[in-house]
Amino acid sequence: MNLKFTFLLAWYYGLRTVGRGPSYIVASLSSPLTLLFIVFIISRGTLVKYAIVGGFIGLVASVALSSAGDAAFMRLQLRMQDLYVASRVNPSDYMLGLTLSYLMFSLPGIVLYSILGYYENVFTLPDVLALAGILALLVVSTSSISFIVSSSIKHVRNVWGIAGIMSVVMTVLPPTFYPYTFIPKIAIYALSVTPVTPAAVLTQGAFGLSPLMAMEIPVMLVETVVYFSLARYLTRWREK
């Protein structure tokens, strides 16, 4: 692995983007914060902890999923992947670099939700550790889905709408901002095709907001491996 390239790419497209375009940060936070407000008003504050915990999941997932447009633009317009054909950079380095950049781009939102969680007395140390592990798997799996989509697109104009729809559907329909016990188990199984669902279910269980559904642990692990492997195959370029 070319870790130097991975971290440099993550720094340039992650932290540098935060500095260059603060408006993008506001845009990425608009949907989770709007849903937090709606949940707070409708439930009169009773479900606000679910919305705060789900905010971490929704934020990271939406940033990674909507990045399919960026990945397609860099592949089709900037021809970024063509530049690495003759280099020591392989598809995994490229994917991990962009994936890490999406996580870095989410940091301001993560800090904001951490403040809200502290104010609502949501966190304990075990909860924080569990959340960190879940978010790490989530950003890899959702970024892999964005790579799969971007690698299948033939023209960049088609990807922006797909990325936007995918981001909304895959973060709002799953029990991200509401208790997963509100929906039948069969619906949870069906929604588990997106890694956002096991991430939300496991996070609610880890924070003691809902019963821990341990069977979602292997589901999320398998999905992360499968989606990353598929994205790695589709994102490959000629080597040697």
Describe this structure in words.
- The protein is mostly helical.
- It is built from 12 helices and no strands.
- The chain has one domain.
Give the SSE layout:
Blueprint: H1 3-20, H2 22-43, H3 48-66, H4 68-76, H5 80-83, H6 91-105, H7 107-119, H8 125-152, H9 159-172, H10 185-191, H11 196-206, H12 216-234
Helix pairs in contact: 1-6, 2-3, 3-7, 3-8, 3-9, 3-11, 4-8, 6-8, 8-11, 8-12, 11-12
What's the gist of this structure?
By secondary structure, the protein is an all-alpha fold. The protein is 75% helix and 0% strand. The chain has helices spanning 3-20, 22-43, 48-66, 68-76, 80-83, 91-105, 107-119, 125-152, 159-172, 185-191, 196-206, 216-234.
Q: Give me the number of helical elements.
A: 12
Strand content bin: under 5%
> What is Rg?
18 Å
The helical percent reads over 70%
Number of DSSP E strands: 0
Mean pLDDT: 85
H-E order: HHHHHHHHHHHH
State the secondary-structure class: mainly alpha
Distance between the termini: 16 Å
- Into how many domains do the coordinates divide? 1
The low-confidence runs, each spanning 5 or more residues with pLDDT under 50, are: none
Largest sheet descriptor: none
Oligomer: single chain
Shape: globular
